[in-house]
Design brief:
The complex is a heterodimer of chains A (74) and B (218).
Chain A: H1 4-10, E1 22-25, H2 47-53, H3 56-59
Chain B: H1 28-40, H2 48-56, H3 60-65, H4 68-82, H5 88-93, H6 112-115, E1 136-139, E2 158-168, H7 171-174, E3 183-191, H8 192-196, E4 205-211, E5 215-217
Antiparallel strand pairs in B: 1-2, 1-5, 2-3, 3-4
Helix pairs in contact in B: 1-4, 2-4
Classes of the chains: A mainly alpha (74), B alpha+beta (218).
């Protein structure tokens, strides 16, 4: 609550200073679904190829989805 | 109640213990306790809010010493005893006392799916909201000794109604079987600086689900 940027750093995610961080305290019987940000360069990927990039950490909002660069080894 | 479960803003709890490929349960007994907790709920001797309050009532030193599912074991045991489903002696021995009544209807594989359906906390009650999206509000400074979902760090702080979620039962009364008191729940935006001061970035914010009774016009 008091230091969301610090918590994300502990998960290995460093956010730029100008990013707006919104913390959702789910106090009621409502749950929020994390929709990971689409990585740059992935515009041509199919639904299946996009789904293959998703990790557990991306779905709980503590990691960005990484898009392998051309020529990178998978 | 102002208890140790209300950890928002506390310092000194140590870094996140990040576990790669974290399993759903770390031991088989945790899964069993999860299942038992869900199944025992089928007899409707308690509700979700009462269950949460039972965990809040753990002595603070025990609360911090126990793991997550150890708290569930203790809370479930106390609810079973309070609800008259079994005695503590029966739970500790693993055997029903001679002549003790059996809960009916029994939960079997045939009806377990029905027994496990979660009842929604949303209530189809038509009532006008007291607050509108965009309105400035303040969280009331209340310190009830019973169950509440209003975090301590938000009390007496000002925010803005971000959205109206509709009508839900009120945990503060429902946990104590004092009625459902349905009312609107809003997502309220509090700027991080309002909550934590100048150490927070000016653009950051915390969104908290707030029941109508927690709010007053600012």
């Amino acid at each position: 609550m008091i230091d969301p940027r610090g918590v994300l750093r502990e998960f290995g995610l460093a956010l730029a200073d100008d990013v707006e961080v919104r913390v959702w305290d789910s106090t009621a019987e409502l749950r929020y679904l994390v929709l990971p940000e689409r990585p740059a360069g992935s515009e041509q990927l199919s639904e299946e190829a996009l789904a293959a990039l998703i990790t557990r950490d991306a779905m709980i909002g503590v990691a960005k989805v990484a898009f392998p660069q051309k020529g990178a080894r998978l | 109640m102002n208890g140790v479960h209300d950890l928002g803003g506390e310092h000194g709890m140590g870094p996140i213990q990040y576990e790669k490929d974290e399993p759903v349960f770390h031991a088989a007994w945790e899964g069993r306790i999860y299942a038992m907790n869900r199944v025992m709920g089928a007899w409707r001797k308690w509700n979700l809010d009462a269950s949460r309050h039972q965990i809040e009532l753990l002595p603070p030193a025990d609360y911090f010493r126990m793991t997550y599912y150890e708290r569930w074991v203790e809370s479930l045991t106390q609810r079973i005893v309070k609800g008259g489903l079994a005695t503590r002696a029966e739970i500790e021995s693993g055997n029903a006392a001679p002549g003790s009544p059996k809960a009916t209807p029994p939960v079997t594989t045939a009806n377990v799916a029905t027994a496990l359906i979660r009842v929604s906390a949303r209530r189809p009650v038509a009532m006008s909201p007291r607050f509108q999206v965009g309105q400035h509000v303040r969280a009331r400074n209340i310190n009830p000794i019973g169950h509440t979902r209003l975090p301590r760090y938000a009390r007496a702080k000002s925010g803005t109604i971000d959205r109206d979620h509709g009508v839900f039962l009120f945990p503060d009364t429902n946990a104590h079987y004092l009625g459902e008191k349905p009312q609107h729940v809003y997502s309220v935006r509090f700027s991080a600086r309002e909550l934590w001061g100048d150490q927070a970035k000016p653009q950051d914010a915390v969104y908290i689900d707030m029941w109508d009774d927690y709010l007053e016009p600012a």
